[in-house]
Predict the 3D structure of the following.
Amino acid sequence: MTRFIAPLLFLFSLTVTAQAPMVPTDYFDDPLQVPLALSGTFGELRSNHFHSGLDIKTQQREGLPVYASAEGYVSRINVAHYGYGKALYIQHPNGYTTVYAHLKNFSPEIEAYIKKLQYQNESYEVEVYPGASELPVERGELVASSGNTGGSGGPHLHFEIRDGEQRPMNPFLFGIEIEDTRAPIVSGVYAYPKGENAHVNGSAQRQKLRLIPQQDGSFKAEAIEACGEIGFGINTVDQLNAAPNRNGVYRIETGANGETLFQANFERFSFSETRHLNQLIDYGYYIQNNSRIQKLFVEPSNPLSIYREVNNQGFLNVKDSLSYNYTIKVRDFAGNERIVNIPIEGKHRNDIIEDPSNITEFFVPANTGAQFENNGIDVYIPKNSLYQDAYLDISFEDEKVNLHEDVIPLHTNISIGFDVSKYRPEDREQMFIAQLNKWGNPSYSTTTKDGERFTTRTRSFGTYTLARDTQAPKVVPINFKDGQWISGNKDLKVKISDDLSGISSYRATVNGKFILMEYEYKRNLLTHDFSDNVITETENQLRIEVIDNVGNTTIFESTFFRK
């Protein structure tokens, strides 16, 4: 008889026993050496990903010294228009890597190293992996200055610590301390009936529970009647003492009548799994309400490694005529805790309000995918693009496909194709596939053109159509005029913009020689620093070529003088 116990337990529970990683707590220093205040913490829920480090405030300005957190060598430098912007990676002898991102510039030695490569490649965007002996650094050595490059929403330093497999880890584990005496904030708790005949207060739909504050700082939910498999979700954030930002929490655990059901710890994850955040949250609710409910249960296709102990996938099996006390404990790294108690009375009901039917003619099994076609438009949804089987609302119109709503997450790209054979080849050059926002405005979706067929790959449902961009980009000088003496200028600044398909590329020369111009896309700004010392003549002919995503080109030319 005993040989059947293990398989049965496996069917009804998932238990992960991984412990908190053992890490050195006195190895890494604060990389800024200023009073620490954070705008973002590790594991924070962001769009399609977990935040992979700490966002350290830089007093609302750029240019603060950034120091190597420990000895090592610069193992990677990446300079990009988007994402991390200017980023530096330091490999340490103990196997860990620290990352410093959104930088304004690098230390003089590193800056010279990367500028040489940029001029060799004639490209602002570069990525390089120096050898161990090329750029060694000491603990506390100046390596950069803080900035606001890439996708940064304001001046700050993004700082990470990664393990030997390049998985980001919570820097708090390494002894980096921030004053925090505030318990996490809970702004909402929700119940999710699962399966046939499951209900909460007579409904099979998601229910928001009324929370009643208690004198000890905890919450008690208004008692609910339920039956069947019930999951829960929570809106929760943490606030540190030094800043008002709403940050991520460290741990969430649940239990019922003294038995653990679920635990999630934000200690480490891999970049390969981070998009599965869209299974951790109620994605449709987030899209519609701009608020993230964290599910306290695990979807069958969710492989996230943040879970530590999960039984029955985190669901509580409520039986008729029995009473339960479901408890949620939310903790920050400093140990502050917020508790929510939910009293539940088991009650079977026959008059359950069911979820509205979502059955359509377009059914997509997650494990096989599907393809649909009409009106010269085709949609291909590959295997495992969806996390779960789904019925989709799809309608094909002339030059437009309404492909469901962006309330179901996509894990991998789907393809959308358009037959453009009815258009003349010269007209196709300025056409592209666009996604329409809720106001009907088009935005460029990366378009591949193969003769009479255009395709795009996307990870968002929505409305897609053909659009045409006939306007070339605009180029406007900011701090100089044609024929002007600018000996006192430290740099050249030019604004570039495109109203529809967006900037694809740019190139600048002076007297026929390539010059490096940094592109700050958030400000539509190109900047050349005269300290590069590549402009040495008195009379100079500037030429900037800017191309948008359908090939419209603007050539800006101007003369300036310098001593």
Observations:
- The domain at 38-174 is CATH 2.70.70.10 (Glucose Permease (Domain IIA)).
- Residues 108-121 form the longest helix (14 residues).
